[in-house]
Write a structure and sequence with these properties.
alpha/beta, six-stranded mixed β-sheet, five-stranded mixed β-sheet, binds zinc ion
């Protein structure tokens, strides 16, 4: 599997992905917005785009569909619940469905509600697992729930699926928000030395060549995966004095999500 992460260089800091089969050169594009950039990269690498996948229905993940389809004839995949929300979806996906790219790439659909109700993540199940997670999970953070989402569902998605992924899983999100997210983690947990080292190393990074974190990193630097950490809990108490004496992981997650909304 060849993965090209493309930074859109826009206000929302979108990432697009080209996932290509090295045997056939066929490629799938995830969440195209900057169509020209995607087409240029595909051409430069000799890829033929045959599939478009939208992780969810927000405009900044689907607005390139029409132009991309016109230029390539690619088939559009999305969550089966997003078929009324995203125009011209050809294939609706449900949990466990497999999306193949060429002859060598196979990705499994995860049903991951929370950021929106109809959000799909894709996971490769090989020696080098990779998660294409749209706006459900970011490097060092998680998606908001303000535009059609639900924080309790987002917690369930993490609790039952994403937090269980193996350490070597690479995290490919829909936006470059890592610096802000690291700052939020450090504000929650001022004694998190690993997060401080990451922030120091990444502050000057070029988003066109962004660091790709792993689940091993995420468990150290993503506050939403550190729900039993004493510093995180004691710090939250300053903002949520009613937090229980021994809060559940769900309570901590929901408080963090709430705080992140106006942080
Ligand atoms: Zn979104």
């Amino acid at each position: 599997m060849i993965v090209k992460q493309l930074y859109a260089d826009n206000r929302l800091r979108n990432f697009h992905y080209l996932i290509a089969c090295e045997m056939t050169g066929e490629a799938m594009v995830i969440d195209p917005l900057d169509v020209e950039r995607c087409m240029h990269e595909a051409k430069a690498n000799g890829f033929k785009i045959t599939k478009i996948l939208n992780t969810h229905e927000h405009w900044d993940h689907i607005d390139g569909n029409t132009e991309m389809k016109e230029k390539t004839g690619a088939v559009i995949y999305a969550h089966n619940g997003a078929q009324g929300k995203i125009p011209d979806v050809d294939v609706g996906l449900k949990a466990g469905d497999i999306v193949n790219v060429g002859t060598s790439v196979s990705l499994r659909a995860l049903d991951t509600p929370g950021h929106t109700d109809s959000h799909i993540c894709l996971l490769t199940d090989d020696d080098m697992p990779a998660l294409f997670c749209g706006d459900t999970m970011f490097n060092a953070g998680v998606g908001h729930c303000k535009l059609g989402g639900n924080p309790e569902k987002l917690y369930d998605t993490f609790n039952r699926q994403l937090s269980l992924l193996p350490e070597n899983t690479l995290i490919y999100p829909g936006h470059d928000y890592m610096i802000n997210n690291l700052e939020f983690t450090i504000d929650r947990e001022p004694d998190n030395e690993t997060a401080k080292i990451f922030l120091g190393n990444l502050e000057q990074q070029n988003p066109h060549n962004a660091y790709v974190s792993s689940m091993k990193d995420e468990r150290k630097i993503n506050t939403f995966l550190r729900l039993t950490n004493r510093s995180v809990i004691e710090n939250l108490r300053k903002h949520f004095p009613d937090l229980s004496e021994n809060p559940t992981q769900k309570e901590v997650f929901l408080a963090l999500r709430e705080l992140r909304n106006h942080w």
